[in-house]
Amino acid sequence: MIIELFYAEGCQQCLRNRETLKATAQQTLPDMVWREINVLEEIDYAVELGILTLPAIAIDQELVFTRLPSVAQLTQALNERITKEKSYGN
Amino acid sequence: MLTIGKVAATAQISTDALRYYEREGLIKPSSISEGGYRLYNQDAVMRLHFIKQAQACGFTLSEIRELLLLSQHSTACCNDVRQLAIEKKLQLEAKIKVLKVMSSSLDAMITNCSNHTLPVTDCPILEAIADIHEVKKP
Questions:
Q1: Quick one: which of A58, A74, A78 has its CA closest to A66?
Q2: What is the C-alpha to C-alpha distance for residues B5 and B12, in angstroms, rounded to an integer?
Q3: How big is chain A by its Cα radius of gyration, in Å?
Q4: DSSP letter at B121?
Q5: Which of these, A46, B13, B40, B80, has the minimum number of CB atoms within 10 Å of its CB?
């Protein structure tokens, strides 16, 4: 699973809980890939995902959060995806 | 001091637009004359210039109000404005993407309409648009 945090340079709010969220994701999914993307460097990709505001988080190239989630919200979103992936796998 | 007519002419907008900006809280007269007319100072002219420039960059009036508030907020910094500008750019890029898809759709229709002398009832462009509409029906 790839988790992508889109931010703007200088945006304090964008990276406020970054480390906590990253640690949460790693704990839930040890083999996940965490990317932090400066939106101006990958603007076409951000537009493709439908990102209009910052910060934003995409999971597996799908826009999931249009603002930074709480730890509980991120955990829930990841667990839902894990469950969905397992059900597709069966 | 400038009257509403003069300040509007200087900013190249209509007096109705100026009154509308006033109702939207973007600008206000610096005083009212004894006869009840609105009077504006040079700051108002500069503010109108700012509003016009911001509109040219795609900002809506409510976003311009936010920019103006930020510019007066002592704790705000350039990064706050920069973030609004980046988000506006994202919105514009998203619109451009949609417009490009629309333009490509028209390209395909124009190319398919090679027989220019067909009666309008057999026009492939109108048929294609009707087909698009058909697909979208529930």
A1: A58
A2: 10
A3: 13
A4: G
A5: B13
